[in-house]
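The aim of this short unit is practical: by the end, you should be able to scan a pair of folded records and say something sensible about each. We start with the first protein, listed as its amino acid sequence and then its structure tokens.
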Amino acid sequence: MEQRKISRTVEVTGHLIDSWILPKILDDLIDLGTEFVIHRLEVGRGKTDRSYARIEILARDEATLEAALEDMRRLGATPVDVDEVRVDAAPADGVFPEGFYATTNLPTSVRINGDWVPVRFPEMDCGILVEGETARTIAMNEVRKGELIVVGHSGVKVEPQERPRVPTSTFRFMGSSVSSEKPKALAMQEIAEHVRDAKARGGKVLVVAGPAVIHVGARDHLCQLIAGGQVDYLFAGNGLATHDIEMALYGTSLGIPLAGGMPPDTGHEHHLRAINRIRAAGGIRPAVESGLVDSGVMYSCVKHGVQYVLAGSIRDDGPLPDVITDTMQAQAAMRSCIRDGVTVALMLSTMLHSIAVGNILPANVYTVCVDINPGTLTKLVDRGSHQTVGLVMDVGSFLQDLAHALLARPALNIVREEE
């Protein structure tokens, strides 16, 4: 006698066919050992039309059905007989209740009093805090005892990433692959257009940069972008700021003269002496305001009002007074900047910072990763930042081309401003 199956019906709306959402749903149901019946399927006829599907899932037991429903939620399908979201109080500061809902970086909604309420600030690996009729993501270390946190998956809806509804460039089409064989000219056009569009719409542009930007001689080009109003936030570590300031004070980066010539005998000490002088001055801003530092990336940030977050590392020398050595404080500072309207993020030759920032970026932030090492992009995408498109190339060439594309003028060799 055939075992009787239990069932639940789900529905999903969106660009189901060309974004491969429906095939993914059906493929996952088969892999999970369930059966399905498509009771209704309406396919959009135009590029802007959305499709709709109603699917009955049949499973041999409750555990299999619940696993299927959880997988469907991640793909944007929700039960027709949807329940209200369930919440439980945090038992202590910094502790989520058992069974809390762990977020993705995709747009998410929760059902409160019969309405779907958007969860503000989508971010992966957080909980959802419900306050009255509103909901937002919250990091584990930020939750306080008694706050109401979403538990389970009932009443939670996730919107999957969809294929863009505008003509897709070759660069974007190849974005998820890790390859140096991408058309760089098309790539630069698309990136520049995204930056222009962000600025025109009031969005913010974030640059996440590693010390390689200084070492390869790309400092001037980043300064041009900052001075030209194309950068709103800079995230970096002690290394970039130190070697940038070392260049301003001694003309070297890690003791190597970037203008050419033999390294000085004591060049290996320059980064330490640079840190020491900034510590004596009381920080980067006082050093700029006093005239001690009169060129470079940090100088440009101070002069043009670009907010920077320097996050510390266990391997830092010094560090500079501006470096946030508490990782949770650094994460909170970054999160605050991102939530101020960042819509474009440029990750420039820094694996650790790229992965760290990628973890707190919403999926709808246009993210570009530039690195000579393809492993950086691979690791970033593997960690969940699937919106990332990448270029395997020298960061110096990238910044030079981007500055030229955005500022419509040849790259300059001047980074010092006249007072």
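Turning to the second protein, read its sequence before its tokens, just as you did above.
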Amino acid sequence: MSADIKRRGLMLVLSSPSGAGKTTLARMLLDADSGIVMSVSATTRARRPNEQEGIDYFFVAPEAFDRSVQGGEFFEHATVFEHRYGTPKKPVQDALDAGRDVLFDIDWQGTQQLKERAREDLVSIFILPPSHDELERRLRTRAQDSADVVAKRMAKAASEISHWPEYDYVIVNDDLRNAHTKVRAILEAERTRRARLVGVGEFVAELTR
């Protein structure tokens, strides 16, 4: 892109039911594209031995988390298995202002909150499994859970999938490499959306003077 044209970054959301492949696709995208960074969430749960502050999560006390919620410092927040998670606004805004894109691996509820607070910066993609049977197979293979647990995961997946119409794009992950190519194509197209380009009017005026 011309030095005269700068770009505001975007917020790219990947959502899917468990087993559809969004975490793998997110990792592939981060490895392939240096222009996008992963959003780091704050959490009230304890840090695990292999986790690093500010890289895996921002680990905060419940009282500090409550103050951040009351101060409007999160784009979105939720309680998961008795622990609280939230997306701090400042590091995301700093990245967007610098022209960097931010990747979110969140569910439909978090996506709805982001849409309410930052719709113009948001691009959302829902990842679908290729079939009901394949999703069940992946869940059985990956987790080695009992049939009862797998059934509960499948029921939750059905609930999550029902929110696909709320997303800008839908990708069926029947082939990981092909799905990754589609995610990158969407990202590249959204990067050139006119509304995100800063200084393009002046650049065109200079071209046509």
